[in-house]
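Posting here for the record, re: uracil.
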Amino acid sequence: MATPHIKAEKGDFAETVLMPGDPLRAKHIADTFLSNVKLVNEVRNMFGYTGEYKGKTVSVMGSGMGIPSISIYAKELITEFDVKNIVRIGSCGALKKDIQVRDVIIAMGASTDSAVNRSRLAGFDYAAIADYSLLEASVNAARSAGKQVRVGNVFSADLFYSPVDGIMDTLAKMNVLAVEMEAAGLYGVAAEYGANALAMMTVSDHIITGEALDADARQNTFNDMVEITLDAALTF
Ligand SMILES: O=P(O)(O)O[C@H]1O[C@H](CO)[C@@H](O)[C@H]1O
Ligand SMILES: O=c1cc[nH]c(=O)[nH]1
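Prediction output follows.
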């Protein structure tokens, strides 16, 4: 069967799908962490894989960048491929001095300048929040592995290059931990179509200090976050 953006068979995806923005990060994760791997989607090179992690079947597929892109893939995975849990595993820019590059942040909530969730809620402000079970399982998996995570609010920006003067200072003042581009949209899609979602990000750059990882590091070295997510997935 095929949706407009995914060419795969019913049953090709596991109930839980990890979604990095970068399809090559999806490939790295499949190559590094999964066994018995099958490539299940390559439409637009948005690679999707299904394999086994410690005996559990899980999938990993790129989401592309931004709320419009992840919204398409998340909606089709949920409604056409019976996916129940989507965990975004992304990168983000840190907004606070006490957060370092490579720290892992879990988005308990996601603020945004996108209008998608207002469209869903008759023009009112929608609180885009993580599924509590996925959040708790991920925090527990991190604790068990002795890995630190920060849990809080993130900002899902429509524009990577913001034209709004002082926006990063305003976000930091409101205790927003980091900026990225998908979480609020993913949470809205999951609510609309009845699935569970969580967004977890590794800090790839620091808005205050300017420190930044390169593309190769963003693609291939976020293993702590991936292990937390996969270990959490064993419990749901
Ligand atoms: O690394 P990913 O998961 O793509 O996440 C972040 O990186 C992209 C911008 O460079 C946006 O998609 C943003 O959310
Ligand atoms: O969206 C993003 C992702 C990483 N870093 C940023 O500054 N923004």
